[in-house]
Amino acid sequence: MKSEKIWLVTGVSAGLGLVLVKMLLDSGHKVAATSEDGDALLDAVGAKLEGQFLPLTVDLADERNVRRAVDSTIAAFGGVDVVVNNAGVGLQGALDSLSDAELRGSFDSNVFGMLNVIRAVLPRMRAQRSGHVFNISSILGFDGGHAQWGAYSATKFAVSGLTESLAAEAAAWGVRVSLVYPGAMRASPAWRGAQYNTPELAARDPQRQELGGDPVKAAQALINAADAQYAPLHLFLGRDAFDQARNKIQSVQQELARWREMSVSIGVVDERRLAA
Question: Which residues, if any, are the signal sequence (predicted)?
């Protein structure tokens, strides 16, 4: 560990969030972690760790609830250095089959909950002119070509877009921002409760966990990125995420080249250049 930091991690009931919190605490960092059930979170972490760990019962869709959680973190530890917006839910189904309540609930959890955390913590980071925000998207927030996952993908594309804009805004304050695209995350025997971070592989073939990424290595990647001199804006986690992103980029490049003439043809014609 290069230096002790104060971390705020959301969505720590299971999966990558829980693995990350355990690793941070083992390394001596101070950690505030949110879950819908703070008592269960305390049991999952397995130690009270007074003065080092703050479990918070938070409904991230409730703006006041989120602000109280951030205030509690600052009161307990004196500040916030790193925020990991990890909370989210997967919603599967054809777009025309999902109800309005289901769709809006998905955006409340995956997008507006994240925005509530950002709006609560950014004034503090702006004032201290330092900090690092990790927003966890998904490879489906970069490549949406998967049937039955359109609603989930839409929320994660929203996360990707707002994070890129946040990075442009926050740079002037010395705040770093990283957009994380995990692929499938297998369950790890060493960290009971870890689950898939990207749901499509789990739903397609839940028995083939060896295809997923290691949540311990993924958590370590986030810790390393927080310590790096130059933080990545785009961080793909997992070979599947890396390959899927590369294939998407190549496909877009091919279409750009194929349709270049039509794309640029709608521009306003410069009569002076034509006359010359």
Answer: none
Q: Which of 5, 22, 30, 156 is catalytic?
A: 156
13 is catalytic: yes
Q: Go through 31-61 and write b for each residue having 16 or more CB atoms within 10 A of its CB, e for each that does not.
A: bbbbbeebeebbebbeeeeeebbbbbebbbb
Sorted by where each begins, the domain ranges of the chain are: 6-243
On the CB side of 48, CA atoms within 13 Å amount to 2
Dump pLDDT digits (tens) for 61-101. Answer: 999 999 999 999 999 999 999 999 998 888 888 898 999 99
User: What CATH number belongs to 6-243?
Assistant: 3.40.50.720
Catalytic residue list contains 156? yes
- Tens of pLDDT, residue by residue over 9-33, are 998 877 888 999 999 999 999 999 9
pLDDT band at 206 (very low <50, low <70, confident <90, very high): very low
Whole-number Å distance between alpha carbons of 82 and 3: 12
Look at the block and give the residue holding tokens 């039955």: 148
Give the residues across from 31 on adjacent strands.
7, 53
Give one DSSP letter per residue of 148-182, joined into a string: T-HHHHHHHHHHHHHHHHHHHHHGGGT-EEEEEEE
Q: How far is 81 from 227, CA to CA, in rounded Å?
A: 11
Number of H helices, E strands in the chain: 11, 7
pLDDT number for residue 270: 65
Active-site option among 30, 35, 106, 152 = 152
* SS3 call for 22: helix
13, 27, 72, 248: the active-site residue: 13
Q: Which of 35, 106, 109, 137 is catalytic?
A: 137
Q: CA-CA distance, 114 to 34, in Å (whole number)?
A: 12
DSSP single-letter state for residue 214: P
Strands 176-182 and 132-136: what pairing?
A: parallel
